[in-house]
Amino acid sequence: MNWYLDVLKNYATFGGRARRKEYWMFILFNIIISIVLGFIDGLIGTYNIESGFGLLSGLYSLAILIPSLAVSIRRLHDTDRSGWWLLIGFIPLIGAIVLLVFMLLDSTPEQNKFGANPKESFAY
After folding, report:
1. What backbone phi and psi angles, to 5 degrees, belong to 54?
2. What's 80's DSSP letter?
3. Would you tell me how many other CB atoms lie within 10 Å of the CB of residue 60?
4. Average pLDDT score over residue span 27-43
5. How is residue 91 annotated by DSSP?
6. What is the mean pLDDT of residues 9-37?
7. Can you tell me the mean pLDDT for 34-41?
């Protein structure tokens, strides 16, 4: 849970680096929260079949948009890539696969142009 809260605390920090664990724990908690909110939307009747969103899950998606972008950019920085690589996701299928590979790659072990290695500074 600390990984998720750390990302929310740095919600608009696009500089620096983010470890794999920080990124993937944030994604895991987002998936769990989205499933729970979707279930609640279905129970209280605020789910819209046409849009695929409910009121609560839609508000959550909007609230988490900037922190998601920020942690994704920091994760790309950790692999010594610019945040502009996120735009490759607009290419159908290939872009998603390339981004997935980038997010799965290990950190550059030394300091890079985006900052110090976060593995050396975290004690989780």
Report:
1. -110, 175
2. T
3. 19
4. 94
5. S
6. 92
7. 93
**Cβ count near 25 (within 10 Å):** 19
Structure tokens given for 103: 């997010």
Q: How far is 33 from 27, CA to CA, in rounded Å?
A: 10
First and final CA of the chain: distance in angstroms?
11
Q: The tokens of 73 are what?
A: 């950019």
> Which residue reads 């920085």 in tokens?
77
pLDDT band at 12; cut points 50, 70, 90: confident
pLDDT in tens, 71-82: 999 999 999 999
> At 111, phi and psi to the nearest 5?
-65, 140
112 backbone dihedrals φ, ψ, rounded to 5°: -120, -170
Distance of CA 46 to the CA centre of its chain: 26
Structure tokens that stand for 51 in this block = 């849009």
Structure tokens at 33: 């929260």
pTM of the model: 0.87
CB-CB contact of 77 with 115 (8 Å): yes
Is the CB of residue 124 less than 8 Å from the CB of residue 4?
no
